[in-house]
From TrEMBL:
Lineage of the organism: Eukaryota, Fungi, Fungi incertae sedis, Mucoromycota, Mucoromycotina
Presence of keyword Membrane: yes
Compartment list: Membrane
Entry's transmembrane regions: 35-55, 67-86, 98-120, 140-166
Keyword line: Membrane, Transmembrane, Transmembrane helix
Top-level taxon of the source organism: Eukaryota
Protein name: Secretory carrier membrane protein
Mode of membrane association: Multi-pass membrane protein
Chief place of localization: membrane
Length: 197
């Protein structure tokens, strides 16, 4: 088909109903929604960090650092997450190739750890999470606290949802009989092909 994604500037073709087998479309749709929630969470996280910077809570001294990191992550993680775990999951379900499953497992595993790390809200990490949330509400910064609460909820919902989809994909992967050695073999074949072309 012709390129249709992203809708605002089509660079590639994605069509879950046309390319994914019907029995796996539900899972792929939810992995896509997980990716969209990740983008929304990055934006909310940035807005929360921006509010922290402008409200100047006394107990939070990492406002500029958090804002800079959250801004950088909003752009870099959008592309990285799409190409490192969403697209491999899409291709895994579409082509049933072990290498794509392993790419998804590795990078989505890091993504899951990252979401819970951000949900904690450690200062100077760019994460609008629990530690920052407690500081804001205890200092009486309610509006900024509400934005931080929304970001924290998104981090947690996404983290637990990602665990569920990860397990669902892993169970499917195991039921098809794929192995790690098969994924290694596919990687070597692909490297060999690219070396000769």
């Amino acid at each position: 088909g012709t390129n249709n994604f992203p809708p605002c500037f089509p660079l590639m073709y994605l069509d879950i109903p046309a390319e994914i087998p019907p029995e796996h479309q539900w899972t792929v749709w939810w992995i896509y929604r997980e990716w969209l929630l990740f983008e929304l969470t990055l934006v909310l996280n940035f807005i929360a960090c921006l509010c922290v910077l402008f409200s100047h809570p006394a107990s939070v001294t990492s406002g500029p650092t958090d804002l800079g990191i959250s801004l950088t992550e909003m752009f870099t993680h959008t592309l990285a997450s799409f190409f490192l775990w969403y697209r491999p999951a899409y291709n895994a379900y579409m082509k049933d190739v072990s290498l794509y499953y392993f790419s998804f497992f590795i990078f989505n595993g890091f993504h899951i750890l990252y979401t819970f790390y951000k949900a904690v809200g450690i200062p100077s990490t760019g994460g609008a999470g629990l530690i920052l949330l407690v500081s804001l509400f205890s200092d009486g910064f309610i509006v900024t606290g509400i934005f931080t609460l929304l970001a924290t909820i998104c981090w947690l919902v996404m983290g637990f949802g990602a665990i569920y989809l990860y397990k669902r994909t892993y169970d499917h992967y195991k039921s098809t009989g794929h192995t790690f050695s098969e994924a290694k073999q596919e990687a070597f074949v692909r490297m060999g092909r690219s070396a000769y072309t």
